[in-house]
Amino acid sequence: GINAEYGQASVRPHPPASAGGRPAQASGQGKNPTVNRVVKPLTAREVEEKLLRMMPAHGSLQLGTCGLKNIGNTCFMNAVLQCLSATAPLTHYFITGKYKSEINPDNNLGTKGLVAEEYAFLTRALWSDRFRHLAPKDWKSAIGRFRPQFLDFSQKDSQEFTSFMLDALHEDLNRVTSKPKHKDIDYTKFSTHQEGADAAWQNYKARNNSVIVDLFQGQFRNLTCCLKCGYKSVTFDTFMYLTVPVPKSRTTLAECIENFCQTGTLLDFSGLNRFLF
């Protein structure tokens, strides 16, 4: 029924901290145990309460066309959510429930699954074919809990919101439960750039491996060559966002990326051309 449609929901807050700064432990001495919502789904009543807080307008025009109501000046957030909702592989990942087996509640860099669970609930509501529009109140509260700058209802930067949201989802869904130590790689030992790129990517994924990495992250190669002695330095860097130059004339995204990848020249302290990158 309803639980099958909307799946699991948000992780409940952790127990209050004790005087020593550690969370109070549940025991038989009158302390209430906490419920781990990562493994226990919401009841039908809890699901309906969450839906009511969204103030949904019932009725659907077409599957996937559910709107998001502003909660104050939250168009910056809603625009990002709609873009991600239209990213078919990500939406399919959450709607089918695949995310459940990949939640990493022990990752100290994440939110114990709270952001992932709330995003999954919101995505299922958007694609339930039941509503014309709704207000993502619980989602906004979850984001504000971990990033207070998004707690109020004023206008914010959509890029900052996107960055925090995707990072939070990545850490909540990181498949790596025990991260190995970072190791430096000498890329000059590889006979081809492709071999170096593969080694760098595998080195990165040994610590970072999630659906966010699969869909939104990439890697570029930096090659710096000294024009005087011929020394070459090769590094590989992962990215989730690219700041590309946009010319004044009409252009395409491919042209912007091509312009971003053009070779450039650096000057040394004397003002002479010294490095090619």
Give a description of the structure.
The structure is a single chain. By secondary structure, the chain is of the alpha+beta class. The protein is built from 10 helices and 7 strands. The protein has a 4-stranded antiparallel beta sheet with strand order 5-4-7-6, with helices on one face. Strands 1-3-2 form a 3-stranded mixed beta sheet, with no helix packed on it. The protein is globular. The chain starts with a helix and ends with a strand. Residues 1-5 and 7-37 have low confidence and may be disordered.
Oligomer: single chain
- Any idea what the shape is? globular
Fraction of residues in β-strands: 5-15%
Helix content: 25-40%
Could you spell the SSE succession in H and E letters? HHEEHHHEHHHHEEHEE
Whole-angstrom Rg: 23 Å
- What is the average per-residue confidence, as pLDDT, rounded to a whole number? 83
* Distance between the amino and carboxyl termini: 58 Å
Poorly predicted sequence stretches spanning 5 or more consecutive residues = 1-5, 7-37
- Which strands sit side by side, in order, in the main sheet? 5-4-7-6
Question: Could you give a short description of this structure?
Answer:
The protein is an alpha+beta fold. Helices cover 36% and strands 12% of the residues.
Distinctive features:
277 residues; alpha+beta; four-stranded antiparallel sheet; three-stranded mixed sheet
Q: How do the strands and helices of this protein lay out in sequence?
A:
Layout: H1 2-6, H2 44-53, E1 57-58, E2 67-68, H3 75-85, H4 88-95, H5 114-126, E3 131-134, H6 137-146, H7 158-172, H8 193-205, H9 211-216, E4 218-226, E5 232-239, H10 253-260, E6 265-267, E7 273-276
Parallel strand pairs: 2-3
Antiparallel strand pairs: 1-3, 4-5, 4-7, 6-7
Helix pairs in contact: 5-6
